[in-house]
Amino acid sequence: MVTAAHDIVARVLGSSYLIDQFADDTRGPMKDICPFTLMGTFNRGITNAKRTEIAKGWADFLKIEEPIPVTFDGIPILNNLNSWFFNYEKNGHPDEINVLWEFFEEAIKFADSQDLDDNVAFIAAYNKTSQQSGVGWNLTMGLYWIRPWIYPTLEGQSRIYTEKKLGITIGKNGPKNRCSGSDYLELMDKLQTRFEEDTFPVHTFPELSYKAWLYPGDHGGNDGGNEGDSGDNNGGNSHPLPPYSIEEILADGCFLDRARLQEILERLRTKKNIILQGPPGTGKTWLAKRIAFSLMEARDENKLRAVQFHPNLSYEDFVRGWRPDGDGKLTLVDGPFMEMVKAALEAPKIKHVMVIEEINRGNPAQIFGEMLTLLEADKRTPSEALELCYRRDRGETVYVPANLYVIGTMNIADRSLALVDFALRRRFAFINLVPLFGKVWHDWVAQEFKIAPVILNEIEKRMLLLNEEIAADTNLGPQFQVGHSYVVPPTGAVINDARQWFRQVARTEIGPLLDEYWFDNLDKARKAVETLLEGF
Prior knowledge:
The protein has helices spanning 2-13, 35-40, 48-62, 96-113, 116-130, 138-146, 156-165, 181-195, 205-214, 246-251, 258-271, 284-296, 315-318, 336-346, 364-368, 371-374, 422-427, 439-449, 453-472, 498-517, 522-533, and strands at 19-21, 27-29, 273-278, 304-308, 320-324, 330-334, 352-357, 404-411, 429-432. It is α/β, with parallel strands linked by helices. The protein has a five-stranded parallel sheet with strand order 4-7-8-3-9. The protein has a two-stranded antiparallel sheet with strand order 1-2.
């Protein structure tokens, strides 16, 4: 097992961090490993792509056939510099790894039975294990990893969320102001009881962990010393934000190349505001959020706000306006854009991003109001501040801080939408997205959904012919082509019959779209679908 750990980690990371210090002061590969440190190899502060690759390495080694995770939102992770549940060999107790294995077995036994005798044994094992150097609160993180529907994690951010948001006190009758085994089971029972309440904010332990991950806080606070009771090897662990970069965008399934993504990111950094425009099905919203995370260099949902423009949206909804309160009076309420402005001002060193879906479906000039002027990259300073239409105080002025970025998406094939206002165009950089069939699309769909290459070749050929016909139509053009997203199954989908899946997509998704395109010649639309499926 430990040999596999070295091989998998070194293959993915380039070198192994599992280097021990021995009694004779020499250093070398770790000779033994506990189950929690093993699971920590893919639950550390590394990229999602590398976590997935390490998890796949373990799945192959252990012959596990379950799907490999590609997202890890809400799963607590270890500090990269302190990723073991035990000490270096020269400083540790000779039996400490065995104690961790025994607790691992006891925890699984209790989770599967939960009878009174196992309860007593679990508490005893918990108390013994949690007192070992290098364990502490980390033990609850390990419990969550092995049985997330049974055990809660109590690393720093989850403790903050449980006590501050849920209003539930965590018993801390164990050593060093931590919970004992009895405290832990009591909290577990209390939470499971509250999960049954319809109005309770969370209803499962995974949901609690995810909400804690999103909860505003320092993502690392704790109230009982280091999470792992630091000896020579372990330190604080919590819900650090997963790092995110262009590599993660590519690993998530983006069909644009690295250079193009870098270009888009650079335009956003410089211009502050960009619009992703393209035909339907080109992944505009999908890409917008990932570009935002890449800009922030972390998958930080708290710094991202997504809204959708529509014909009924107004300045009062988006920026600031009067709303009736519970007393029947009118109150001046900030809309989502002003909320983002304030959040960015409060944390000037942290990037914030607002994603506006279908920005041309509303009236952007009217919705933004004076904020349209303040969006300009060279007006992001206090000296350019303006008074809003609705002021809280006499003389109140507002400016858009430099750390607030805006990404819009725009479907240029929608005939019902007006052309974008020239004032808006001047303040945004426009990025064109096009249907991307080819090797990257082909390889991704084949690998993720186990669709035979020969079928994908046929689908690609038919989609390209359809798009050629659309692009050549004088009433349509390239902006009306059908995007690649139409022929990418949803994440996690199991495609047992790829031909049947494509036939369903053609008839229920592509067909209705073509009916809209050729609304004045439905026979042409239906013939296009027939051609798309002919002999398939």
